[in-house]
Design goal:
Helix content is 41%, strand content 16%. It is α/β, with parallel strands linked by helices. It holds the Pfam family GDPD.
Length: 268
C-alpha cells in the first residue's frame, strides 16, 4: 500500500513539471531523479522508447540518453560504438546506413533501434527532461534537432572535458550544461569562464564530501550519480543509502539505474 501511495504522489508531481523549464525544476524540485540510459529498476532495457514509456507510467520524467550517428548522419539512441551488446545485430553503427539499420532490434524489447528524433517527439509529448550524452563530433547536429523540437529549455547537455564544454557554451539556446568537477581548480576554472545561469557541476559520486561542499557553497547546482555500489546497497536497505548519500552531498540532480526507488526514497 505504501508503494502504491508513493507512485500516485509521483504521478501527481509529474504534472506541473510538464510546463516547467529544467532551470525552474531545479530551483523548485530538488533533487531531480534521472533514469540512467532510460533504465527502470536496474533492468537491461537501455536507450529504449519502450523502457522510457514504462518509467513514465511510474512517475519518472527525466532521462539520460546516449546519442550516436550512423553512416549517413542519422542520429540514434545507442551507448556503445557497436550494435553487439544491446541489439540483435553486430558491427559498428557508424558503418551502417538507415536501410541497413531497419531490421536492427533491441535485444530486451525487440523494438527497432530508436532514432533520436523519436525520443525528442516523446519528450515533447510527455513534457520530459532529457540529459544528453552526445557521443562523437555531432554536438551541433544533435542540438539543432533539439531546437527544432522546441525542447532547448528541457535539456541538460553533459560535457566531460574543457574542449567539449567550450563548444557547448558556444551554441545558441537556453539548454543547461554540466561540466566535470573533480577538483577545486576545476570549479574555479569553469565558474570564472562561463555564465552561472546555465552551468551545472557534475561531481563524481566518490569525490570527497569537502569537494561537494565547496561546489554547493558556490551556488552551482550539483549533478552526480549513484550507479554501481550505491544503487546496489540501496536496493538492500530500502533506500536508506540514498538518503545518507544525499544528506552529505546536496545534489540537485542524481542519476540512477533504480530511479523509482531513488525518487520514492528521497520524497519528503
Amino acid at each position: 500500500m505504501k508503494i502504491q501511495l508513493v507512485l500516485v504522489l509521483l504521478l501527481l508531481l509529474a504534472g506541473p513539471l510538464q510546463s516547467q523549464s529544467l532551470r525552474e525544476a531545479i530551483a523548485h524540485n530538488n533533487p531531480l531523479v534521472v533514469s540512467h540510459r532510460g533504465v527502470i529498476d536496474g533492468s537491461l532495457l537501455e536507450n529504449s522508447l519502450i523502457g522510457m514509456d514504462q518509467a513514465i507510467d511510474k512517475g519518472i520524467s527525466f532521462f539520460e540518453l546516449d546519442i550516436r550517428v550512423n553512416l549517413e548522419g542519422g542520429l540514434y539512441l545507442l551507448h556503445d560504438v557497436s550494435l553487439d551488446r544491446t541489439t540483435d545485430h553486430s558491427g559498428l553503427l557508424g558503418e551502417r546506413d538507415a536501410k541497413a539499420l531497419q531490421p536492427v532490434q533491441l535485444k530486451e524489447s525487440m523494438e527497432p533501434l530508436p532514432e533520436f528524433n523519436e525520443a525528442l517527439s516523446l519528450a515533447k509529448e510527455k513534457g520530459l527532461f532529457l540529459m544528453l550524452d552526445i557521443k562523437e563530433d555531432i554536438l551541433n547536429q544533435a542540438m539543432d534537432e533539439v531546437v527544432a523540437y522546441g525542447l532547448s529549455h528541457k535539456i541538460l547537455l553533459l560535457t566531460f572535458d574543457r574542449d567539449r564544454a567550450e563548444k557547448a557554451f558556444s551554441l545558441e539556446g537556453d539548454f543547461l550544461i554540466s561540466v566535470l568537477i573533480t577538483s577545486v581548480s576545476d570549479l574555479e576554472y569553469y565558474s570564472s569562464k562561463y555564465p552561472m545561469g546555465r552551468l551545472l557541476a557534475y561531481v563524481p559520486k566518490d569525490s570527497s564530501e569537502a569537494l561537494f561542499s565547496k561546489v554547493y557553497s558556490s551556488q552551482i547546482p550539483i549533478v552526480t550519480d549513484v550507479m554501481g555500489e550505491w544503487d546496489r546497497l540501496a536496493t538492500e536497505d530500502q533506500g536508506a543509502t540514498y538518503r545518507n548519500f544525499q544528506q552529505s552531498r546536496k545534489a540537485s540532480i542524481i542519476v540512477s539505474d533504480y530511479p523509482i526507488l531513488l525518487k520514492s526514497s528521497l520524497i519528503e
